[in-house]
């Protein structure tokens, strides 16, 4: 299985401006979108489709910069959910497997990039693979989550048996316990997937059977796990949700601290904190 196409979703009403945010790294100022596109291209993907809010094509083309030649923009004409956004790229994908990334996350790895590890496993096993990370139960309302069996001799790889979209802690405790994962933590999606054409077929069926309703990717992946091998890979990198409170700021810090300018950034942060402490008046009664 060879993955040469990628789909980035960025059409959500609360998501559409986030990939256009500008961050700074050792290479200068770049949009989040251009960083995501470059990560996909570096993993040997050659064609990329970005699903956008209708009318945002021009802004996104500008944000893609000199990488725009590798990108096609497709509008999501109806707000029918995350699963529908992916389905909007069905003509672009055709009958091929594809990499999928969400446009409101930034991915930072200290070792081999998460995308590269995911693609290698998917091509080796010829099946869909999602990135996951142990996530505290207090954050379950933000992510889809899975449970499954560890694959013998494959550290961090699980064959999926259960998929739930944004479960409650009670649901997770009842259905998503995975041996070896510490108490209170569950395997939640990392925001990166390699998906087979079967996923598009399942999304199409769900959209047709539930006209007018929003459709999630998790619902299709739950069905996929019942029909064919579906794996998840535990990743040691970090995903940064740009839509969270201070999300863009924290993603910027993570990007800066993972690059060659780390010492300079740390020095400035320490200086900023020291100046803040010196300028804060001491409580009454203290010297």
Could you name the ranges where pLDDT drops below 50 across 5 or more consecutive residues? none
Order of SSEs, N→C? Answer: EEEHEHEHHEEHEEEHEHHEEHH
Count of individual beta strands: 13
Calculate the mean pLDDT score and round it. Answer: 93
What structural class do the secondary elements suggest?
A: alpha/beta
Sheet with the most strands?
5 strands, mixed, barrel
Shape: globular
Give the helix level as a range of percent. Answer: 25-40%
Number of helices: 10
Topology:
Layout: E1 5-10, E2 22-25, E3 28-31, H1 32-42, E4 47-52, H2 57-64, E5 71-75, H3 82-87, H4 90-93, E6 98-102, E7 105-108, H5 114-125, E8 128-136, E9 144-150, E10 157-165, H6 169-175, E11 185-195, H7 197-209, H8 217-227, E12 230-234, E13 238-241, H9 247-257, H10 262-279
Parallel strand pairs: 1-4, 1-6, 4-5, 8-12
Antiparallel strand pairs: 2-3, 6-11, 7-13, 8-11, 9-10, 9-11, 10-12
How would you explain this protein's 3D organization?
The chain contains ten helices and 13 strands. The strands form three sheets. The chain has a five-stranded mixed barrel with strand order 8-11-9-10-12. The protein has a two-stranded antiparallel sheet with strand order 2-3. It has helices spanning 32-42, 57-64, 82-87, 90-93, 114-125, 169-175, 197-209, 217-227, 247-257, 262-279; strands at 5-10, 22-25, 28-31, 47-52, 71-75, 98-102, 105-108, 128-136, 144-150, 157-165, 185-195, 230-234, 238-241. The chain is of the alpha/beta class and 287 residues long.
């Amino acid at each position: 299985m060879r993955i040469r196409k990628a789909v980035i979703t960025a059409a959500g009403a609360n998501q559409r401006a986030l990939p256009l945010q500008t961050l700074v790294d050792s290479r200068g100022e770049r949009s989040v979108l251009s960083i995501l596109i470059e990560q996909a291209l570096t993993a040997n993907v050659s064609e990329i489709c970005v699903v956008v809010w209708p009318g945002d094509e021009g802004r996104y083309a500008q944000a893609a910069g000199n990488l725009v030649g590798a990108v096609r923009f497709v509008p999501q004409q109806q707000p029918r959910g995350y699963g529908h956004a992916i389905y909007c790229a069905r003509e672009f994908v055709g009958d091929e497997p594809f990499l999928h990334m969400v446009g409101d996350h930034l991915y930072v790895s200290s070792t081999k990039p998460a995308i590269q590890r995911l693609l290698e496993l998917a091509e080796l096993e010829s099946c869909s693979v999602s990135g996951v990370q142990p996530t505290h139960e207090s954050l379950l309302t933000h992510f889809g989550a899975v449970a499954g069996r560890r694959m013998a001799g494959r550290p961090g790889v699980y064959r999926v048996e259960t998929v739930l979209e944004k479960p409650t802690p009670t649901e997770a405790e009842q259905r998503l316990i995975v041996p070896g994962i510490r108490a209170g933590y569950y395997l939640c999606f990392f925001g990166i997937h390699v998906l087979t054409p079967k996923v598009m077929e399942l999304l199409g069926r769900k959209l047709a059977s539930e006209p007018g309703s929003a459709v999630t990717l998790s619902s299709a992946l739950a069905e996929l796990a019942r029909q064919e091998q579906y794996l998840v890979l535990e990743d040691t990198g970090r995903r940064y949700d740009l839509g969270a409170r201070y999300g863009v700021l924290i993603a910027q810090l993570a990007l800066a601290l993972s690059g060659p300018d780390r010492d300079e950034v740390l020095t400035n942060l320490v200086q900023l904190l020291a100046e803040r402490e010196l300028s804060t008046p001491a409580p009454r009664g203290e010297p």
